[in-house]
């Protein structure tokens, strides 16, 4: 089940999404396009060639699908730990902040688990995924019906999160879409411009100085952001096949 938004009334309702032959054909087409990466990066389930296994903690916000991220890291040879324990977060070499649902609910979970300051004070590389990236922004319009115009987020990326102006397109933005690289970044090492990644979202982070890559779905929005040690992807690298594995490998090697 996913939440579908009517862009005119901003009313949310539940709709069951079923795959079809067209989706399968699109997926196969995208896989072929993404095979433009270098031969060394095309090896299936490429493992990170590191002398020492890095300590990676997937931050347990209580509001995300941690299993798919952990499985994706397992496939590249990384045994990540899912934890909300302060010592695991502080002692990790890298942090991953996944997220699903609404920004309002996710920020409440971070508050309940005393994770807000821990994340803000992190000095190691941190990768926010989907909603996890949006939480890095200054504020979000995704208030989940609360009587306010926006909610305060972590404030680590100077940008805001708003409902996508999808024009005549359907929300949520779900499926494979092209990512246009705007500036070089270690996350994108060996990844060609206009590669396709898998998206599932209705809200987006606006373009800013932190935008590394953007995507077009009715309007242009940030697909990848980075500011210091804080990075984020609006798409799901763990659901983006080999090209997603390459990005996760790049993150681990930063």
What does this structure look like?
This protein has 254 residues and is α/β, with parallel strands linked by helices. It has one domain (2-253): Rossmann fold, CATH 3.40.50. Helix content is 24%, strand content 27%. It has 7 helices and 15 strands. It has helices at 21-34, 66-75, 86-90, 103-112, 116-120, 131-134, 241-253; strands at residues 2-5, 12-15, 56-59, 81-83, 94-97, 126-129, 139-140, 151-152, 160-163, 173-181, 195-201, 203-205, 211-216, 220-227, 230-233. The strands form 3 sheets. Strands 4-3-5-6-15-14-13-10-11 form a 9-stranded mixed sheet. A hairpin with a 3-residue loop joins β13 and β14. The model is unreliable at 1-22 and 38-45 (pLDDT under 50).
What is the CATH homology-level superfamily? Answer: Class I glutamine amidotransferase (GATase) domain
CATH class term? Alpha Beta
Distance between the termini: 35 Å
Number of strands: 15
The number of helices is 7
Strand order, main sheet: write it out: 4-3-5-6-15-14-13-10-11
Q: Portion of residues in helices?
A: 10-25%
CATH architecture label: 3-Layer(aba) Sandwich
Shape: globular
Reported by name, the CATH topology is: Rossmann fold
Report on the biggest sheet: 9 strands, mixed
**What class, by secondary structure content?**
alpha/beta
Low-confidence segments, ≥5 residues, pLDDT <50? 1-22, 38-45
Mean pLDDT across every amino acid position: 86
Total domain units: 1
